[in-house]
Specification:
94 residues, four-stranded antiparallel sheet, globular, 1 helix, 8 strands, 4% helix, mainly beta
């Protein structure tokens, strides 16, 4: 699990990158890679001020959303990323 937000105690690996982005909440969202290889994003349980969007659709707090290769993930007003999934050798197509 990777926490996304500006709170350095809650999201120590991402807080610095979002420090100047005030539209990203201190506790914004979590990204999780599940055992079956799927990637999920969940907006923080108490919600966020400016929301989390996947392909333009706002997430509901605490409701996981499956991510697919090429999805556009937006936190707050300006922080945007494109999801890029790589197959492992075991899961790569033949």
């Amino acid at each position: 699990m990777r926490a996304l937000g500006r709170d350095p105690d809650w999201a120590p690996s991402t807080a610095r990158g979002f420090a100047d982005e005030r539209s990203v909440s201190r506790r914004h969202a979590e990204i999780a890679l599940r055992a079956d290889g799927t990637l999920w994003v969940t907006e923080y349980q108490d919600g966020t001020t400016h929301g989390t969007r996947v392909n333009g659709d706002y997430l509901l707090p605490a409701v996981p959303r499956l991510l697919a290769d090429g999805d556009r993930l937006v936190l707050g007003l300006h922080s945007e990323a494109t999801v890029s999934l790589c197959a492992t050798a075991e899961r790569a197509p033949n």
